[in-house]
Amino acid sequence: MRQQHFLMPTLREVPADAETASHRLLLRGGYIRQLAAGVYTYLPLGQRVLRNLERIIREEMDAIGAQELLMPAMQPAPLWEQSGRYAVYGPELIRLEDRHGREFALGPTHEEVVTALIRDEIQSYRKLPLLVYQIQTKFRDERRPRFGLLRGREFLMKDAYSFAADEEQLDAIYASMTQAYNRIFTRCGLRFRAVEADSGSIGGEGGSHEFMAIADIGEDRIVTCTDCGYAANVEQADTGLPQQEKRETPEPAAEKFATPGIHTIAELEQALGVSSKQLLKTLIYEADGRAVAVLVRGDRSVNEIRLQRILHAEQIELADADTVLRLTGCPIGFVGPAGLRMPLLVDREAAAVSSAIAGSGEAGYHLRHVQPGRDFPVEHVYDLRLAAEGDRCPRCEGTLRSSRGIEVGHVFKLGTRYSAKLGASFAGASGEQRPMIMGCYGIGVSRLVSVIAEQRHEETGLLWPMAVAPFQVHVIPVSVQDEEQMLGAEALYRRLRAQGIEALLDDRQERPGMKFKDADLIGAPIRIVFGRKASEGLVEYKERQEANSLEVTVEEAYERIVRLCLN
């Protein structure tokens, strides 16, 4: 490709609304442009990266026997009603009507559509197992699109679905898909971990794993064991059994004391000179319209995903200040576990404390010497807190370490959640009808563009891995007016293209400084510069991730490129 007429509008200034390095560099490098919040155009550079990612994914999906298809993005609402997700999916589902008043949704995922398809086409166990996939645009009306391609309202996704006759078949597909994902993300040059995860709104009856790219800006927190390799999203991680604290004898009675104007755990710590581990906090939630109280230690956070699962609720949210006052008779910050007129769910760590400080249920007052079982009921004790740095591993005696990650892939064992509701059954060997056992497997393709850029960049530009880069080689004659430089650059460019190597020739009449800055932004893995010594057959050879360049002959540069790009 020749750069003079290539649509690659690089930017000198950093866009004001770009919060992350990947977002800034993809905009500055001419990869993407925003059309609306969370909606982006992929310029030719960005499209080339997408196509390279799609190629890697297709190769690995085809290698495990997955068959590619393409399903409609516009999905009839009755399908979603039949699965039970239409009313509860939430405002992220983009809904619309056609001219006849029939309701549709723009697909954020395709469990319903693919289940209906296979239901109508497969009736016998002899056709199972079956694995299909697509690479298609998805739509989710994110409340707060952010970080460029990392959280958008329109995005490209690879979603695959498996249909099995029994658990053994499902387990085999799940294992092969997990291995394929490991190969895909390795080929993309990512640092990643597969971690145990919650199935979220997709649901399912079996296991689930997320593939997390390690990144400081990640919205997900994961914990990993220092000893046994256990890894999980904090929302899925078990926290281990707490040690029961020894209680004093005789036990002092709970004592009310004044705490005017003190509402938060941090304020209590400072005012009383105590650790947050000695405090209990009572949080009021609304779960499908009913109120429940949750008690955790002051230094802990509630695992809302687990709470939702325990309550079998479709939706949960923290009650607002007015609701808390109406339900408890006191403002937020003074609610305590004693005397509540609603169910109280106690985290097992909070149930193990010997004596603590908690809200009194009266504005301006707290209680000290509060003890579980005596001052409040401990009938409903669960693991309700998020795992944290320093916790004991639930699988061994190791310690959990915390890091942030960005989800790039997710694999689920769905079981019969969709097949049973949508009637996707098959005839077994003896003729009995049984629901198909399903799995689903997703990769955020467009998100991968940003994740790779986030992990692989420097201040001046991007550092694409060879398999993903829009161009493998950037050929730069310093001056297009210099005949020797242009002849040499043109000859090398043609040789590379003849070998199937993607090369970009900078044939623009620009200052050398501008060419080099643009080359940094683009981030091709190899850069060849034809300068003053072009007439001697010498060029500057530089691999993007190396600090220094080499002066080599054109032939040596060509041989190095072929070795790196084709081997």
- Let me know the largest β-sheet: 9 strands, mixed
CATH fold group of the largest domain:
BirA Bifunctional Protein, domain 2
| Tally of discrete structural domains | 3
Can you identify the CATH superfamily of the largest domain?
Bira Bifunctional Protein, Domain 2
From the helix content, strand content and strand pairing, which structural class follows? alpha+beta
Distance between the termini: 22 Å
Q: Please estimate the helix content.
A: 25-40%
Low-confidence stretches are: none
What is the CATH top level name of the largest domain? Alpha Beta
How many whole angstroms does the radius of gyration measure? 29 Å
- Which strand-content bin applies to the residues? 25-35%
DSSP, total strands? 31
SS element count, helices: 14
Average predicted confidence as pLDDT: 93
Shape: globular
CATH architecture of the largest domain: 2-Layer Sandwich
Pfam family, one: tRNA_edit
Keywords: Aminoacyl-tRNA synthetase, ATP-binding, Cytoplasm, Ligase, Nucleotide-binding, Protein biosynthesis
Catalytic activity: tRNA(Pro) + L-proline + ATP = L-prolyl-tRNA(Pro) + AMP + diphosphate
GO molecular function, one term: proline-tRNA ligase activity
